[in-house]
Amino acid sequence: AISQPDFNKANGKHTSSCPGISETAVRDLAKRMSRFYEIRTILIGREAVEFEPWLAQALGSAIASFARGLRRDIDAVRAALILPWSTGPVEGKINKLKLIKRSMYGRAGLDLLRARIMA
């Protein structure tokens, strides 16, 4: 599991080992990371009610371009939060098929491909 780092503890440690990074830059990064951890929690918890307020806040924050991307595909995001279905298993099968096809270097025919997939 991914845990949220304690940015207050990390600030001094990271800036002392990287003298070119200012405290302001570290604080800005901490704010951005905090927003990403929030959306991660919303997505994993499937908390559809909390998504709209988060998106409104994110559009006015440092991660506005990321939020605009989510807003562009808002129907897919809402479906991911609300619906129980996932394309994960299908994507895995497609990935396996592409791997097998690449390993065959375009040789052989459909019969061999079918045999390798069914194996």
Automatic annotation (TrEMBL):
Pfam families: DDE_Tnp_ISL3. Residues 49-117 form the Transposase IS204/IS1001/IS1096/IS1165 DDE domain. It comes from the Bacteria. Residues 1-20 are annotated as: Disordered. This is Transposase.
